[in-house]
Amino acid sequence: MSGTPVTLNKHYDVWPKRLPKDLCTPDTSLWANLDITVRRYPDRPAFVFCDRVLTFRELYARVEALAGWLQKVAGVAKGDRVALCMQNSPQFVIGYYAILRADAVVVPVNPMNKAAELTHYITDPAARVAIVGSDLAALWVAANDEVVAAAPDAGLRCLLVTRYCDEMTGGQLPDSGIPDAWRGWLDLQVDLPAYGTHWRDAMAARQQADAPTAGPDDLAVLPYTSGTTGLPKGCMHTHRSIMHNIVSGSLWGDGSPESVSLAVVPMFHITGMLYGLHIPIYLGSCAVIMPRWDRDLAGRLISKYRVNSWTMVPTMIIDLLGSPNVANYDLTSLAYIGGGGAAMPQAVAENLFQKFGLRFVEGYGLTETAAPSHSNPPDAPKQQCLGVPYVGVDSRVVNPDTLALCDIGESGEILIHGPQVFKGYWQNRAATEAAFVEIDGKSFFRSGDMGRVDEEGYFFMTDRLKRMINASGFKVWPAEVEALFFRHPAVQEACIISTKDAYRGESVKAVIVLRANAKDTTEKDIVDWAHANMAAYKAPRVVEFVDALPKSGSGKVMWRALQEREAEK
User: Fold this and answer.
1) What is the CA radius of gyration of the chain?
2) Are 471 and 501 in contact (CB under 8 A)?
């Protein structure tokens, strides 16, 4: 069909008949969703965590108490940025909504980050308060020490620390049902610095928050995304931009107050945040929280709680189906499964349909688009496909240089216009201006991803304009990893590229030039250092030492030449 012009909105021919093509986003804050739901369903289960059932009434009371502490003790004012860094847990949910209740801005931080990475999440958003899990407290103290050493007034004034047991029944780990390897960090006691406070003490303070004043167009959340320049950039999302995808996602996935979902995608991530946290609160439904992935625990929880909706990274279902215990689990309650971040292998998709009658619904989105900007119609999904433009979205594939609309099947850059698109990068006007282009009087976000549209209006990924590695759905930005490697005393230069991985799709490879006095450095030395200084998914699995990196006439490292050489292997 190449050479045939694209018909805009052709995807409406396959649009689910039960769904609106656009919707009116509520003129309320995200906090209002909990405030409304607790009045509707006060005693319904909101979240389940390690067999502790937290009702909406209990959740509301915990949020109110913490919001009061944030305002009256920690000094959080309207618009202040508060860092939130922990594993999936009731505390993440309580912390997130307490920050909103205090009219402040949530800065969700990846709990896999190391101290060297965490400094940026203190300095860039000027966060003065952080809420963290006890397993991460030492890293935050180390990061804050580094910040204060460089600028004494730029550090944290309050560090609120929780044991994950704090919100379990009786504050204790259950006797069974938890992987043994988790017990140490779920119940970790830590000493705190002078500016630290224990979760239970904050809750016991019984402070009362002022009346909420944040509106739909106020800043609500500042999730960070990296890019070609290395340091992560904050994506400014308002209550309204997040709310649009909450309402759309509820409708798209046939959500109702009777839904039971599995919240295992990390909540710091825009997808886990939307489907694991916001949508259940909006619907008044129940979410079963997993703090980390464990395939057999997932199988037991789906069976026990009759989970019917599961948003995931495809590697999770692949792992679960590969468990020797899978026959012991009852997965028949599952009615909707979907996700993104990596393509679902065709063979696995067929297996899911043949065994369980489940069609995996792939979607596509970015931090900048509050998760989905595209999704497959649940009744008519295509495999290895991004889907069609989401509710209220105008998306086009254009020539990245001329911005001319591409023909059917022709590869170009994916542009996105819609109410869920972010408002720009935090304090980075140049990056914001470069990220948007105006066409037909509309502002379109330039995704940096290359795609094509078929004759029915479905979008497919073809390549990337941005230099990025996708490892099991985790986005790794080479420039950020390279910048971290310059801290290594043995590394003179480093270039990060992708290498094929049968399980993860792609993995990270480091091509390194060692300093003259460090030629005895081994691959294991590099890998071990990386795991100690950066999030595990960023750490290279393969290291290659070279005498020199290929460079252009202007002295720039020719990373693409190394990538092409790797592909030829």
Assistant:
1) 23
2) yes
Whole-angstrom Cα distance, residue 544 to residue 557?
16
Separation between Cα atoms, residue 405 and residue 7, nearest integer Å: 10
Span between the terminal Cα atoms of the chain, in Å: 33
CA 173 to chain centre: 27
Per the CB < 8 A criterion, the answer to whether 303 and 310 are in contact is: no
How far is it, in rounded angstroms, from Cα 384 to Cα 69?
47
The residue-averaged pLDDT of 462-472 equals 78
Token pair for 122: 């203190």
Judge contact between 247 and 25, C-beta under 8 A: yes
Q: Quick one: pLDDT band at residue 412, thresholds 50, 70, 90?
A: very high
Buried b (16+ CB within 10 A) or exposed e, 376-411: bbbeebbeebbbbbbbbbebbbbebeebebbbbbbb
Angle at the Cα of 480 from the Cα atoms of 475 and 483, rounded to 5 degrees? 155
51 alpha carbon, distance to own chain's centre: 25
Residue 204: partners with Cβ closer than 8 Å, 6 or more residues away: none
pLDDT at 229: 58
Question: Where are the alpha helices (H) located in 154-198, listed in sequence order?
Answer: 183-186
Q: Whole-angstrom Cα distance, residue 195 to residue 119? A: 17
Residue 82 CA to residue 66 CA, distance in Å, equals 13
Q: In whole angstroms, what is the distance from residue 252 CA to residue 18 CA? A: 9
Could you tell me where the beta strands, DSSP code E, fall in 163-218? 196-198
pLDDT at 424: 98
Secondary structure of residue 288 in the 3-state scheme: strand
Q: Please, are residues 511 and 478 in contact by the beta-carbon 8 Å criterion? A: no
Q: What's the DSSP call for residue 406?
A: P
**For 335-366, what is each residue's pLDDT tens digit?**
999 998 767 777 788 888 888 889 899 999 99
> Alpha helix (H) ranges present in 102-170?
115-123, 137-150
Confidence check: pLDDT of 87 > 70: yes
When pLDDT is cut at 50, 70 and 90, the band that residue 2 belongs to is low
Separation of alpha carbons 520 and 310, rounded Å: 48
Task: Choose the weakest-confidence range: 276-290, 367-381, 456-470.
Answer: 456-470
Lookup: tokens for 346:
């065709």
Backbone angles phi, psi at 432, to 5 degrees: -65, -45
Which of 110-114, 387-391, 402-406, 549-553 is predicted least confidently?
549-553
Which residues pair with residue 443 across a beta bridge? Answer: 438
| Residue 288 binned pLDDT confidence (cut-offs 50, 70, 90) | very high
Amino acid at 192: L
In three-state form (DSSP H/G/I as H, E/B as E, the rest C), the secondary structure along 1-34 is: CCCCECCCCHHHHHCCCCCCCCCCCCCCCHHHHH
